[in-house]
Write a structure and sequence with these properties.
The chain is built from 13 helices and seven strands. The chain is an alpha+beta fold. A hairpin with a 4-residue loop joins strand 1 and strand 2. The protein is globular, with a radius of gyration of 21 Å. Bound molecules: 6-diazenyl-5-OXO-L-norleucine.
Length: 340
């Protein structure tokens, strides 16, 4: 016969809670140690990898020392686990794109992103002009150049200065510190931006750009020239992992209920024409940039970011993508289940 004995119950309950507490503390300590040893391990594993080449269509990017390599995990609580060159400042490039899309979602709505830009992957390179001709949405999604130029044109502003200040402030808020522009990168890209100028003008022609084209091009190019470190990218990703609140500053940077839509676009288009391969092997929403940075998000938990300038043919950093994919695999954190 089972009889309820309040005294024994309390003792059993306290012992149970104590065990749970110990287990939780141990698990936490193991996780911290595991995070640090993993970033150290992948950094050591991929540092010798020489594959790929610095981007050269933006001339100054050839001058970034190719051997730089940093890997970082930043948790939603703001804990940082770092290896290598995580404080070197490089240009954010396309890693900026989802964060400005987040600003459009916050200022207006995710519907505006869907209707005025689009949310389909193109299956084509990031600077494709053909995508504008074959898809009715023209811009197609906010992570390719066309959609990102459309994003800055949708930022609500009465002047170019206001548009730029909002873009910079927003990305700084995600990073949790005031960021600035690498002026030499801006000069180098803006003076050679013939392809992006063509894209901006085509979008305008099709009624899919919402500000004057040259203004959108300038603000977009400045956005891509913002200087960040791998540590900053980690904090930006951790803000998404933390449902839109920056773990360092405690500031809400975007509404929690729009984070899933943003991560969905990063999952389907964050690696451009390599997005399928990336989701197949790593299983995490992520964004890459031709500066060599990549950030991936484990929703609700942490971000993994890396920086290394040598890129593959799709414009994605070779060491960074390998490092992040391995960390995701070893921790078993792919969003569809652990990847092998
Ligand atoms: O517009 C461009 O071409 C660059 N500012 C950004 C491209 C980029 O980073 C593509 N990413 N992998």
């Amino acid at each position: 016969m089972i009889r309820f004995d309040p005294l024994n119950y309390r003792i059993v309950l306290s012992a149970g809670l104590l065990c749970f507490g110990l287990a939780a503390t141990t698990a936490q300590a193991q996780t911290d140690a595991e995070f640090q040893s993993l970033v150290d391990k992948v950094h050591a594993a991929y540092a010798p990898l020489q594959e790929g080449a610095n981007a050269d269509y933006i001339p100054i990017l050839t001058e970034t020392p190719s051997d730089l390599f940093g890997v970082v995990i930043v948790t939603r609580e703001g804990k940082v686990f770092a290896a290598g060159d995580v404080d070197y400042e490089f240009s954010i490039q396309s890693v900026s794109k989802p964060f400005t899309a987040a600003l459009v979602m916050s200022e207006q709505s995710p519907e505006v992103v869907r209707e005025k830009i689009g949310v389909e992957p193109t299956g084509l390179p990031f600077n494709s002009k053909m995508a504008l001709e074959i898809y009715d949405e023209r811009s197609v999604n906010p992570l390719v150049n066309a959609g990102a130029i459309a994003s800055v044109s949708l930022v609500q502003a009465k002047s170019e200065e206001e548009r730029w200040n909002k873009v910079l402030q927003n990305i700084s808020d995600f990073a949790g510190r005031p960021l600035g522009v690498l002026e030499k990168v801006y000069e180098s890209e803006y003076t050679t931006a013939f392809g992006n100028r063509g894209i901006a003008n085509l979008l305008y022609n099709y009624g899919r750009l919402y500000s004057e084209p040259e203004e959108a091009l300038r603000v977009y190019t400045r956005q891509c020239s913002i200087g960040v470190s791998a540590r900053d990218l980690g904090m930006m990703g951790a803000t998404l992992a933390n449902q839109g609140v920056n773990p360092k500053t405690g500031k809400r940077v975007m509404p929690a209920n729009h984070v899933p839509e943003l991560l969905a676009v990063m999952a389907t288009a964050g690696f451009y024409d390599e997005s399928g391969e990336w989701m197949y092997t790593a299983g995490l929403p992520a964004k890459t940039g031709v500066g060599g940075g990549i950030v991936a998000v484990v929703p609700g938990r942490f971000a993994i970011a890396a920086f290394s300038p040598r890129l593959n043919a799709a414009g994605n950093s070779v060491r960074s993508l390998n490092a992040i994919r391995d960390i995701a695999g070893e921790l078993g954190v792919g969003v569809y289940g652990p990847n092998p």
